[in-house]
Amino acid sequence: MLKAMKFTYSLSILTVASAILGSVAGGAGAVTVSLGTPFPVFGDVYNQFLNPQSQSFLLIGNGPVNQVGNQPGVGQAINVNNFELGAIKAPVPSPSSFGPNTNGPGLLGNVLDIPTTAARVGTGVDFSGNIAITNSNGVFNLQDVGVFADPTIGIRCAQSVSACDDGTQNSFFNDPNQFPNTFVANSGSPSGTNNTTGSGVGVNPNQAAQNTRIDEPLSTGVTGNVNFTALSNEIFTGPNSENSIIPGLAATGSLTVNDGTIQPSDSAIFAGSPGLGSFSRSNSTRSGGTESVSGGTFTLGLSSGLHVIDILTNGNDFQLDGVNFVIDGPSDAFAIFRLPNTRNFLISNSNVLAGDSIGLNNILFFSNRNDNSQHFNFNNTVINGVAFHTTAQAGGEIVINNAEGCTQLVADRINLNDVRFRRCAFRTEGEPVLEVPEPTTVLGLLGIMGIGGVFARRKHQS
Q: For the whole model, what pTM was predicted?
């Protein structure tokens, strides 16, 4: 592994230049993207983010209830109210109801449709809702939540099970009756969209399998006294953690929004070589393709490699307001977006989406803001193939209300209301593995080909 110090000396001339360009050509009402050469695939920087420990978890809450050393108390490290983790058993974007006794989160009509250039949001149960409460003084609280997770991982706590659960009620682990509802997706999408439609039936707490209750005293799916040292070293602490490495990386690009807010009417400006990427704005639809919207979908195209993109906001919070932000590229394109370290990321009635070619584990928005504010605050959103991490261990919070999609959330405190999330953890892929055939196979190849040939193929992380 590399040492963080290796990167701290390097200031990106590209970032400074693009900031000047943004102040001249961007201005209010314009969004400017500048891209330089990314870090190469399988290079030293790229290999920092294989993330073998954290990739198993949808939610990682790192805060203590009360102050421990220099780390402030946050109350509940993870608090989730309503719907489900590790499953999306609903249309996307979901209406407020899609069958008898079903509920939202009521996004259809409040957010734009999923454009055809974005990956379709996967629905159903994928058992990806693993949760980690990593602080020895950390607790969680679930209210009316269906957790669908790997039964060998599930909900893991650094302290005992009884101490870690802070009042969970009417929540169920891998309920075979599908609490809080069943769902059958329709094939295809409404014209001009990548929306998912379908119908379901509500399952109330009394109809769920009672032996799957997460509530005490059963605590189904919860494991206590877990050692999270390796995971903490990967994300929060030590010289090779995300918290140490990412802030010191040289920027390879920038996203400049001088007033901080991307809106449908803003123009899109690309400042850079076409071979390194693209940035464009296109028209959108709402409510299942029935309402045309001028502008609204901003698409950032990336080239192969690991892009480290600074978000420059002229001292404002970064905000998406009524737009789609699509990030695309080949399957070996990766992006880390760094927020200004004194500003937050806000979403209102907007979607952040992986494109239909880039991988669903390839995009990260990162903050190491050193305070206890709401570093990510999202209201009415579909998130797909995008992770959000805040790692300074200063009480930073992620708050999301009314949302669906595939993501990974890492913070001292995570507060979710009316959500349906599956896991899309940020991670790069391992290097190609040289596979040597058995001796008899080698002899067969030599006999057929007349040469000594060895083939390699990429193995994907699980």
A: 0.89
